[in-house]
Amino acid sequence: MSARKISLTVNGQAVEAEVEARVNLADFVRQAIGLTGTHVGCEHGVCGACTIIVDGRPARACLMLAVQADGAEVETVESLGTPEALSELQQAFRDRHALQCGFCTPGMLMTIEALLRVEASPTREQVRDVLSGNLCRCTGYQAIVDAALDAAKARRGTR
Amino acid sequence: MKAPPFAYHDPRSRDDLIGLLAELENAKLLAGGQSLVPMLNFRVVAPDHLIDINRIPDLAGIRLSADDVVLGAMTRQCDLQASADLAASAPIIREALAHVGHFQTRSRGTIGGSCCHLDPAAELPALCALFDAEFDVAGPNGARVVKVGDWFKGYLESALEEREYLQSIRLRRWPAGHGYGFSEYARRRGDFAIAGAGALLEFAKDARIRRAAIVVFGVEPAPVRLAEAEQMLVGQTFSETLLAEAAAQASALDAMADVHVSAAYRRRLAGVVTRRALTEAVRLAREAV
Known about the structure:
The complex is a heterodimer of chains A (about 160) and B (about 290). Chain A has about 160 residues and is an alpha+beta fold. Chain A has helices at about 25-30, 90-95, 105-120, 125-130, 140-159; strands at about 5-10, 15-20, 50-55, 55-60, 75. Chain A has a 5-stranded mixed beta sheet with strand order 2-1-5-3-4, with helices on both faces. The longest helix of chain B is centred in the last third of the chain and has 26 residues, at about 265-289.
């Protein structure tokens, strides 16, 4: 009905695509670009599984239209590390056993990534506050908070 | 679910926006999208046209003058939260913003969007009531200013006409050293509150209350100022009994009932949060003296 040509950067790569106006950014990165690390849970901005970073800020990908990302810099969980070379944050999640089923994990990682960029030494309370926007039904959160604090420490040591 | 189809427009200037508002039928304005996009995804709204105002350059910003703070409608909640000027001149705003949605939604959500969507439990419209805000709106038939008392029409309903858009919100500043308190109760952090309250207090040199403003939100379909309680406080010196009497007026509001709580529980909570907000306002006002 209303397709548009957009160009944006996804994880540092230039992307050009034609997209229907009603397609949200989460579906766009999964289906048009094939980056299925971004998970789609509730599709109304409550669960946080689709959290990505847009122009440096954390955002619900299900609450943005892909056309709105025209000209934007988008970062998804695939930008963090690879299975062979995990980022400090991903390594901390592994070490702390901060995931079980893993469905919420991409959103958790991107939320904490966004936090650590603006707050290198967050308190436990700050981590808990930002993670209130990401639902996890398995872990009980304690290990996730531990992992975030470990990652902050590791990043302070190495950067 | 997925949004229904619509035609998408993203005007680059206010003039282009007004042209679209004049021309299009069944159009909806898209600000930060943190309420409208869920409503689209649930298909509770199905506009033929979506007008995205995110690319109009001069709709965001924070401007302070001696008497006022003017907030562009598209100012993001995270930018309001980060503003040192705002924190210095109206510190209750930063206090309240910690309760607005989540870290991940405040980076998109705007003050104008919140004030036009008008969820009864939203913090930002309540702050507008507290600061005697004026809403600067415009459309094909020109611009007009709506006082906050006329802005709240009812549940999810503002005074914004179908072909108008909100340009900015003007808040009246309070003098330096005023006391402020904000309190809300939600079952989960970041959820809409079951009840919340904000209070501003200014004390005279003789320790009497010179001016008071109290707002309660999440209780009636729109935020309410407790005008009688405010009048009762003015000219008095602080006492626990006085605060209890003021808070009692919040418990007399015509509270809503919903699937979560009964009207009686909400009324009771309204009194509790009002008392907490006032207590904090008194403490901070005294600290500032």
